[in-house]
Amino acid sequence: xxxxxxxxxxxxxxxxxxxxxxxxxxxxxxxxxxxxxxxxxxxxxxxxxxxxxxxxxxxxxxxxxxxxxxxxxxxxxxxxxxxxxxxxxxxxxxxxxxxxxxxxxxxxxxxxxxxxxxxxxxxxxxxxxxxxxxxxxxxxxxxxxxxxxxxxxxxx
Length: 156
Fold this sequence. Notes:
By secondary structure, the protein is α/β, with parallel strands linked by helices. It is built from seven helices and eight strands. The relative contact order is 0.17.
């Protein structure tokens, strides 16, 4: 995905930090986090565009701490697992302010303001891109990726 973002190298430094946002008391959230970490390990996913990748997990409890976590941990990408009781408008306002690209495991989160989501259509995976959100978070996806994806433009 990141090789298709023309602005990626300008947004990151010597290391890419991806945070997995989950809720430890929500079983589906912890399952998706565990599955994602397992897939990253199996694929030996250690770099993006030849830049070292660091992965951290955020056990999300309150939105007020998200802004400081994004800054203090130099987070460039935020993967959102299924979560409950979150003010998405506020969350995506923070990620846009901090230029943190958001990915969602729940396709409906893209309509709520996440930049990128994934879903299965039958047997085939589909990428969903909220073009307005991705631009606001600093991404500049090339036309090849946009042609391969379902693109929506929902401003939040």
